[in-house]
């Protein structure tokens, strides 16, 4: 008998970036299948292909031996493939009941095209909610009024209400409380016993140990190995997840002077920083000339931390001191502090970093425009000089500075984003995954630039999803898990194994005492 | 959560909070209209009520047309032009025998549907921003109106026109009956249909709607088609009121802008996803009653636009309170 689901040779590229390369997945009725891999291994893309959200460039899919095509999420849903996504697919303005019955609600008078039967739909919603143990959620409540953890339960109830044959969960438990996780697991086991195939991605190793029947490990978009859960130790699994075939070469780090005079206050000291339940009691400091890495799995609060330090969040508690002085950061503009400001190199350069249709010149000088303007008028010659020196420093390859920045290659665009902030001569530089999606050569140049900036006494906080990069560039790496720092790795303890273990919140010899996530 | 009674209370609370916009607009209208008829020298006579109703219903239909695209987080800047164009068309077709009149009505309504369908095609398949797409098609419809009726005038079956704009038993304005019929026969079934709810879903979050398997394209298309239909009904009523047609681009433009105002006053969010046509109807009535009130209180006609603007600004501001709750400042700029 063929397996319920077989995916073979699935490939997907985004521009020059390979997300999946000949990946495969097989899963059977009545089994829970865990999909494992580190950041960028292609797990989410694989599930999105199966959910009909992403169209693969190549590959075949079979459902119970029959080849299938998935032109969209609606088609997948009709075949009984239903997903619970990481980024919620709920409609905030609609009620819980409307969300649960969104696709195929019960109709009045049993007519196929009849109006929606609100009462029946409400009963359906109540049943679905009760089934996942979320009977406390009112079916008429608008989803936007629910806290994140309740919304996630609605999302799961919504998926179950569609009577799936194959249920896909991408980090579906990441926003849940421990009590809800237990309830959801009970439901998932029940569904497995009812004969469903369940495929799930989780970054919590203990959840995988608790729930999975089968595991498949992916790395760099390729399938590495599938095995029955429990037949491999966590250490072996981590080995499979890491084992990279290529190693980036990192420029040698100029040896850091450990004998800082303690009289100099740290460039940045963060104490008990918390925000909206997403960041919890963050404590750390960076001295001038240090590069501190932020590690951990994607989405554990690293981005929020950078935004908080940049002044883009409201309701942040705790304190931030720059050069020993308490500061209140209320907006990115006010972060131009005495002695140099705080710069954030954003992740999404297309929307947060650049004005694509404007010229290289305008993009470079936006943030630092005050430095060469008098009485609101721009001193063109001063601007020219500053831009020329920045283009030299970063070796930006552009045909003249008055062409649109959109015409540049990805790597050169990223250099413009960085250059724009360097023009403000910041003393603290926050980098949000700056090397994502750029070529190897440009990466090398960026690494060298980081060292040059550090040598120039800037303090750098560097978030990267590439662990090798953290090890190659940083003096120290903070590992975040669930919005808290769970370990701090330094010197020889900065190994890929320790970072991956820390990212999964598994104890290592090197882990520092930190708050342990639930 | 204990017992049935507390659940009931919660049901009522959710119902009230989801209907807050229309309820406020309705209360506002009732208060303002009561003031108007008490101040009016003729009192609440059938004539006064009928005149007010006819004016209000015209805007109410154009504003209902606006409501549905707005629910999908779109905008239809052509509703005023469709209104004027169908007025011109009706002024040549609503004539002759009852059978000819009936045929004329059908053609006028069908032409509205056609305009809406064109808007929908351009927005959905052309993937143009609704505001630009309908600005362009609106200009086209104004052009068609001029072509249909280069000079104001027309030949309209007066019996039909008087019936449409008169009062049933001299009490209930017939235009109100038409409006109620449109609500019961078109709006409510639409609101309760899967595609109607899909319009709310698309307006609430187009991406999440797509991810959930909602028929996004069909929902948007139907929204613009219905907008065309409602605008055509308004055009028909205008013809009955004036016995003629006029390709008046200024009138179309002012109705388009008033329709957006009525939508907002009626509690529909310009961000899409919440609100509805019932609120819009009261929003339109409120706007029209403001003008009447300024008239009975003898306010200088020259300062009326200023008053109207201030009232609009206040009611539009009420909609942005949610921004105070935003936690990520970046989100304000999305």
What composes the largest sheet of chain A? Answer: 6 strands, mixed
Which strands sit side by side, in order, in the main sheet of chain B? 1-2
- Tell me which protein chains meet in the greatest interface and how many residues each side has: A-B, 40 and 35 residues
Number of domains of chain B: 1
Number of helices of chain B: 14
| C-alpha termini separation of chain B | 38 Å
Shape of chain A: globular
Radius of gyration of chain A: 25 Å
Number of H/I helices of chain A: 16
| CA gyration radius of chain B, whole angstroms | 20 Å
Oligomeric state of the chains present here? heterodimer
Taking pLDDT < 50 over at least 5 consecutive residues as the criterion, the unreliable ranges of chain A are 508-518
What is the helix content of chain B?
Answer: over 70%
Strand content of chain B: under 5%
Question: What spatial order of strands do you see in the largest sheet of chain A?
Answer: 6-7-8-3-9-10
Structural class of chain B: mainly alpha
Helix-strand pattern of chain B: HHHHHHHEEHHHHHHH
Low confidence ranges of chain B: none
Per DSSP E runs of 2 or more residues, the count of β-strands of chain A stands at 22
């Amino acid at each position: 008998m063929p397996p319920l689901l077989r995916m073979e040779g699935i490939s997907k590229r985004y521009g020059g970036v390979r997300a999946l390369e000949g990946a495969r997945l097989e899963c059977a009725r009545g089994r829970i299948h865990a999909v494992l891999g580190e950041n960028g291994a292609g797990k989410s893309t694989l599930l999105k292909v199966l959910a009909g959200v992403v169209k693969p460039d190549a590959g075949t899919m079979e459902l119970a031996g029959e080849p299938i095509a998935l032109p969209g999420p609606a088609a997948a849903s009709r075949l009984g493939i239903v997903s619970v996504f990481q980024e919620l697919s709920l409609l905030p303005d609609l009620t819980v009941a409307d969300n649960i019955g969104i696709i195929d609600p019960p109709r009045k008078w049993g007519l196929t095209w009849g109006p929606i039967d609100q009462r029946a739909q409400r009963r359906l919603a109540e049943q679905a909610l009760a089934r996942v143990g979320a009977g406390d959620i009112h079916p008429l409540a608008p989803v936007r009024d629910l806290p994140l953890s309740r919304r996630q339960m609605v999302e799961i109830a919504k998926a179950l209400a569609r009577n799936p044959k194959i249920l896909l969960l991408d980090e579906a438990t990441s926003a849940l409380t421990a009590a809800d996780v237990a309830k959801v697991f009970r439901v998932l086991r029940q569904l497995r016993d009812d004969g469903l195939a369940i495929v799930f991605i989780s970054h919590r190793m203990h959840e995988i140990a608790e729930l999975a029947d089968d595991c498949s490990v992916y790395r760099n978009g390729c399938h590495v190995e599938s095995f029955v859960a429990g037949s491999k130790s966590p250490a072996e699994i981590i080995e499979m997840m890491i084992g990279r075939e290529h190693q980036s070469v990192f420029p040698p780090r100029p040896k850091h002077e450990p004998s800082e005079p303690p009289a100099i206050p740290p460039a940045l000291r963060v104490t008990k920083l918390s925000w909206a339940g997403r960041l919890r009691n963050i404590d750390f400091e960076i001295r001038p000339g240090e590069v501190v890495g932020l590690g951990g799995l994607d989405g554990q609060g690293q981005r929020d931390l950078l935004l908080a330090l940049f002044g883009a969040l409201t309701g942040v508690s705790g304190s931030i001191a720059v050069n020993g002085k308490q500061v209140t950061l209320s907006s990115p503009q006010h972060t131009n502090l005495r002695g140099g400001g705080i710069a954030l190199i954003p992740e999404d350069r297309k929307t947060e970093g650049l004005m694509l249709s404007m010229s290289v010149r305008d993009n470079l000088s936006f943030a630092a425009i005050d430095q060469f303007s008098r009485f609101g008028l721009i001193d063109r010659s001063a601007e020219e000089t500053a831009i020329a020196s920045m283009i030299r420093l970063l070796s930006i390859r552009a045909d003249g500075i008055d062409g649109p920045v959109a015409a540049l290659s990805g790597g050169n665009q990223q250099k413009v984003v960085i250059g724009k902030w360097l023009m403000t001569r910041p003393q603290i530089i926050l980098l949000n995954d700056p090397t994502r999606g750029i070529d190897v050569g440009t990466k090398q140049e960026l690494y060298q630039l980081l060292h040059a900036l550090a040598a120039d006494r800037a303090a750098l906080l560097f978030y990267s999803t590439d662990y090798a990069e953290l090890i190659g560039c940083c003096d120290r790496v903070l590992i975040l898990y669930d919005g808290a720092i769970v370990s701090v790795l330094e010197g020889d303890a900065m190994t890929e194994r320790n970072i991956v273990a820390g990212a999964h919140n598994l104890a290592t010899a090197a882990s520092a005492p930190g708050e342990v996530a639930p | 959560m204990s017992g049935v009674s507390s659940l009931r209370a919660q049901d009522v609370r959710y119902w009230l909070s989801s209907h807050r916009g229309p309820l406020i607009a309705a209360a506002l209208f009732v208060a303002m209209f009561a003031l108007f008829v008490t101040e009016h020298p003729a009192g609440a006579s059938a004539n006064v009520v009928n005149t007010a109703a006819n004016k209000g219903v015209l805007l109410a239909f154009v504003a209902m047309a606006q409501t549905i695209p707005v629910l999908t987080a779109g905008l239809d800047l052509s509703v005023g032009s469709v209104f004027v164009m169908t007025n011109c068309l009706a002024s040549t077709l609503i004539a002759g025998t009852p059978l000819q009149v009936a045929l004329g009505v059908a053609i006028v309504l069908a032409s509205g549907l056609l305009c809406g369908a064109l808007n929908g095609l351009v927005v959905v398949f052309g993937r143009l921003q609704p505001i630009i797409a309908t600005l362009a098609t609106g200009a086209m419809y104004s052009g068609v109106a001029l072509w249909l009726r280069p000079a104001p005038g027309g030949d309209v079956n007066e019996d039909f026109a008087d019936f449409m704009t008169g009062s049933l038993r001299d009490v209930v304005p017939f235009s109100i009956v038409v409006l109620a019929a449109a609500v019961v026969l078109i709006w409510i079934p639409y609101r309760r249909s899967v595609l109607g709810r899909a319009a709310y879903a698309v307006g609430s979050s187009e991406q999440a709607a797509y991810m959930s398997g909602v028929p996004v394209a069909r929902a948007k298309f139907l929204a613009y088609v219905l907008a065309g239909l409602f605008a055509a009904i308004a055009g028909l009523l205008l013809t009955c009121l004036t016995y003629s047609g006029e390709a008046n681009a200024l009138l179309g433009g002012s109705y388009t802008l008033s329709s957006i105002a009525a939508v907002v006053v009626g509690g529909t969010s310009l961000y899409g996803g919440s609100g509805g046509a019932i609120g819009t109807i009261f929003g339109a009535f409120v706007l029209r009653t403001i003008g009447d009130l300024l008239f009975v209180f003898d306010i200088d006609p020259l300062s009326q636009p200023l008053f109207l603007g201030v009232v609009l600004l206040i009611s539009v501001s009420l909609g942005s309170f949610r921004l105070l709750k935003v936690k990520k400042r970046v989100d304000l700029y999305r």
